[in-house]
Amino acid sequence: MSGGEALRRLAGAQKSAKGVSLYSRFVNRPAGRVLAAGSYVVGLTPNQVTLVSALFGFGGIAVLALAAPSWWAGALVWLALAVGFAFDSADGQLARLRGGGSPAGEWLDHVVDCAKTTALHSAVLVAFYRHPGHFGTGSDVLLLVPLVFLLASIVTFFGGLLTEQLKRKAAPGAAAPAPSTLRAVALLPVDHGVFCLVFLLLGGGPLFLWGYGLLGAAAVLYLPLFLAKWFRELSRPAAHPAGRQPAAR
Within 13 A of 243's CA, how many CA atoms are on the CB side? Predict the structure, then answer.
């Protein structure tokens, strides 16, 4: 199969855009589609694409933790994280192109995502600790910002993933719900691709601190909204897979 044919097949095998931000819908997924088609042509497996994503992601994280904060370092961090995020979309698309993924592949994808999220905020913490003057404050309170951001990010990641696993799968052939443009815009502050962009401000010191802090505040404010929504969805009788009843509380 040629790259063009792979792209055409992928275009018709996209996941629903419901609950997806504008960045992921119009930037990351299309970029991942191109990378998935190219990966198919060169013979990569979905798991190998996941590892490529990890290579880019952890490469950017290493620069963030080890290099002195500067404009060039921030640009490099953003580029590595953005490319890694695109490959993270590509692995699932490649799996669908090849006829479906495997439980092991899905497990690897989620473990890598969790590790990257944890390491990324930890690297910000290291940067704040090593270069407090660059960010405009020498207060130890600054170190709490990435810790709180990390907590909100991990709980959101785990809560969303667990909700997806526990909800009843849609019936085959069921029409996907129409995506909401308003919701897609509202989700931009908690989209990973938008988060990657803040590292372009790394050389600006206080500018980065404000950008990172505002996105962290958004993650904290959105978290209870997500949790309440997911709990309501799972509380509906139809949300439980056939044959599985919720444990008594």
Answer: 0
Which fold would CATH assign to domain 3-165+187-236? Four Helix Bundle (Hemerythrin (Met), subunit A) (1.20.120)
Domain boundaries, the chain: 3-165+187-236
The alpha carbon of 225 is separated from its chain's Cα centroid by a whole number of angstroms, namely 18
> Residue 121: which of 140, 139, 144, 88 has the closest Cα?
144
> Would you state the structure tokens that stand for residue 146, as one six-digit string?
């990435």
**In sequence order, which residues have a C-beta less than 8 Å from that of residue 75 and are 6 or more positions away?**
200
By the 10 Å C-beta count (0-12 exposed, 13-18 middle, 19+ buried), 89 is classed as: buried
Which three-class secondary structure string do you get for 27-68?
A: HHHHHHHHHHHHHHHHCCCHHHHHHHHHHHHHHHHHHHHHCC
Evaluate whether 65 touches 116 at the Cβ level (below 8 Å): no
- As given in the structure block, the two tokens for residue 144 are 């709490």
Q: What 3 state SS string does 176-204 have?
A: CCCCCHHHHHHCHHHCHHHHHHHHHHHHH
Which of 5-9, 76-80, 174-178 is the most confident on average? 76-80
The whole-model pTM stands at: 0.88
Which pLDDT belongs to residue 83?
97
- What one-letter code names the amino acid at 117? T
Let me know how many helices (H) and strands (E) the chain has, helices first.
Answer: 10, 0
**150-187: pLDDT as tens digits:** 999 999 999 999 998 898 664 445 555 666 788 889 99
Residue 161 in tokens? 């993933």
